[in-house]
Amino acid sequence: MKSYTLHRHVQLFRFGDPFETESLCYPGENLIPQEEVELPEFDIFKNNGITVLTYQLEKQDRVIGLGESVGGINKRGRVIEAYATDDPIHTPDKRALYGAHNYLFIAGNKNLGIYLDFPGKISYDIGFSHPDRMIITIDGGDFDLYVFRHDDLLEAVRSFRKLQGVGYAPPKWAFGNQQSRWSYDTADKVREVADNMRKKWLPCDAIYLDIDYMENYKDFTVDETKFPDFRQFVEEMKIRGFRLIPIIDAGVKIEPGYHVYDEGVEKKYFCINEKDQPFVAAVWPGWVHFPDFQQPEVRQWFGKQYQVLTDYGIEGFWNDMNEPSVFYTEESLGTFIQKAKECEGKNIDLEDFFVLKDLFEALSANPDAYQKMHQISETKKIQHHQIHNLYGFNMTRAAAEGIEKIDPNKRYLLFSRSSFTGMGRYAGLWTGDNYSWWEHILLMIKMLPALNMGGFLYIGADIGGFGGDASPDLLVRWTQASLLTPLFRNHSAIGTRNQEPYSFDHWTTEAIRKMLELRYALIPYIYSEYMKAALHHDLYFKPLSFEYIDEHSMEVEDQLLVGESVMMAPIYQENARGRYVWVPEEMLLWKTVMNHQDEFQVIKPGHHYMHLELDETALFIRKNKMIVLAEPAQNVDLMNFDRLTVLAFVDGEATYGYYDDDGETTNYKLEKNIKMMIRIRQHHNDYQIDVELKSSVTISKIHFMLTNPAGEFAEMDYDVSSGEIHKGSN
Ligand code: MIG
Fold first, then answer.
1. Which of 134, 178, 629, 720 could link 489 by a cystine bridge, Cβ 3.0 to 4.6 Å?
2. pLDDT tier at 623 (50, 70, 90 boundaries)?
3. Given ligand 1 and candidates 85, 86, 182, 214, which is best to mutate, with the most ligand atoms within 8 Å of its CB?
């Protein structure tokens, strides 16, 4: 083991000769090894190619991070596995989901952060086998261990994030409402969704195309029988204010004559089997090959294919099935069929029955396929299993780099299902196949900050739940809970009940419209906070414990801080007409109610039961903080960001740096785009407002809505051209 100091608080411990994952992007080659190696926090044990790191947990230690996984914000008591898995049933016992996120932060008397840069399987037993031990089992002996020793947790996260580079910047319209379903499988069905959205005045920016838009599930093809004149159709929808977002799957259909297949075979771009033949597996298209995204040349080639769709006018994609998901292989299918034949006509006993059943279930037990599949890394043939967790990351990197070449100045929407640390530079992610279960609203809330810690910022869950049937109240509450998630998309599985916002009764549609309008009103704040977090290695979603040190804030698992000014505490319980909220400091409650005026109320620190009927949404504005709002519109392009409203809770003095940019080009440097600095000084019910604007800014009017700790409310208008403030106006 060698050790290096990267920074006063950051050390790298290199075990053996690690595989270069490229998850981080600092210049590693300049490292100078140190003599003394010290890693006092861990006991290290190596056996049979496996490395076990053991950490002694103290009673009060909380373990947070590990990205996409079931469980709480505090993962203590669980086993979590980093091994990208397509598992559509996220029950509490599940250990692995789609992404592999090897970072965690131990918060207690001493704070410690770690990142394990290793592309294979790792398991984290966090006080499960033994209550005060964290046992990390690494399926190998060659890896990098980064240790972050900061007193402040947020600083530790920032240090980790800095090593990854700046975060992905989506176009601004990607913060609007998006509607999806598996599938709107014809142009007319897509039109119907668009019609309904506009007819019911439901703001929406994008409609999704799931696998059925393709010709026999072949990537980069469009089925002209279902989508005649696709180019024209994309344009028609764009004129109506909707972007179409097609899905791209990892597997390439085996079909001579299909150009992606032909070229891939000819140039040896696919993953191979033990005999160096392209590896064969089955997914939606039937038999497929998987591109070997480990090879830079393959990434370039695959990335270029996206142009087929951008040439049609497409501006966003979602990459799916890139764990990669395998339904079955020739071998697993063969074994099953053979056993089934043996049983045919026989009076089979229970043992045979269970063997048969297990074989059937094992058809999609991917680990076997991952052992047999191989990839090439710098001329070396490597078993896919060893580098399994990089697959989705590299597919998405391929897409991002390809798209960037198509138009270097344009931002595209891109997100992926599978991921690895570092992918947050290239794209966002969605949390995969959740269910229309109330429990999954809470699971989403818990996952958001854990994902942010790993640099995944453009994130969201399928609103309303993917599997199963959504009830109208579930959809309403889920929409409220997602109000501030950067990716805001309603999506549902084939065969489930329709759950578009207009699919239920009139009341539900109205309640959701109110929420969507609130979402759009919040876009200036969401965008400002998102971009600052991406460019400044910050957290957009934070557990309360990152800002408040009282004992309750350490424990809260169902409230989050969002950006610098807001606390959210959504309802995620069926039939609830309110909930308990922990308010760690005095805050301003902003309650929106359908068909009523908004309500504002100063809330004292403490535990509060908040009444919130189904059509009521609460947001909390932190003390001496503010949020920036705009008038909602039917889509983001139609919004006017020149007339803004600032909602502030001021006790003495509040300041805010508002970020904005053109929302579509790659010209998004942080300093340049802090478009205004706002300072509000309060004395009783008197306010002094200073707005410092960048010269290029087109903002013309700002409406201020101010509350002081006495709960007194004041409104005033700031006219930018004259610099004058008019009090009491509306
Ligand atoms: O095997 O493309 O997570 O969002 O709708 C299912 C169909 C494949 C899984 C994705 C889901 C998508 C679905 N896909």
1. 178
2. very high
3. 182
* Closest to 414 measured CA to CA, from 166, 174, 84, 97: 174
- Whether residue 631 contacts residue 689, with contact meaning beta carbons closer than 8 Å, is answered with no
**Atom of ligand 1 lying closest to residue 183 CA:** 5
* Residue from 217, 321, 463, 494 to probe ligand 1 pocket by mutation (most atoms less than 8 Å from CB): 321
Q: How far apart (Å, rounded) are the C-alpha atoms in residues 694 and 461?
A: 36
From the CA of 249, give the closest atom in ligand 1: 2
pTM, to two decimals: 0.97
Atom of ligand 1 nearest to the CA of 210: 2
Quick check: 526 and 484 in contact, CB under 8 A?
A: yes
Model confidence pLDDT, tens digit, residues 237-276: 999 999 999 999 999 999 999 999 999 999 999 999 999 9
Q: State the distance from the centre of ligand 1 to the C-alpha of 281, rounded, in angstroms.
A: 17
Question: Looking at residues 117-124, what average pLDDT do you find?
Answer: 98
Contacts of 91 (CB under 8 A, 6+ apart): 70
Residue 168's contacts (CB-CB under 8 Å, 6 or more residues apart) are: 400, 414, 424, 425, 426, 427, 428, 457, 458, 534
Taking only the tens place, the pLDDT of each residue in 350-376 is 888 898 998 888 888 777 899 999 999
Handedness of CA 341, 344, 347, 353 (dihedral sign): positive
Per-residue pLDDT, averaged over 667-688, amounts to 95
For ligand 1, residues with CB inside 6 Å are 182, 210-211, 247, 320-321, 417, 432-433, 466, 491
Which of the listed residues 68, 210, 363, 429 should we mutate to test ligand 1's pocket, taking the one with most ligand atoms within 8 A of CB?
210
Cβ neighbors of 695 (< 8 A, separation 6 or more) are none
Instruction: Name the nearest CA neighbour of 419 among 74, 82, 148.
Output: 82
CB burial readout 597-608, b (16+ within 10 A) else e: eeebebbeeeeb
Distance CA(442)–CA(430), nearest Å, equals 15
Token code pair at residue 354? 């269970």
Alpha-carbon distance 704 to 654, whole Å? 13
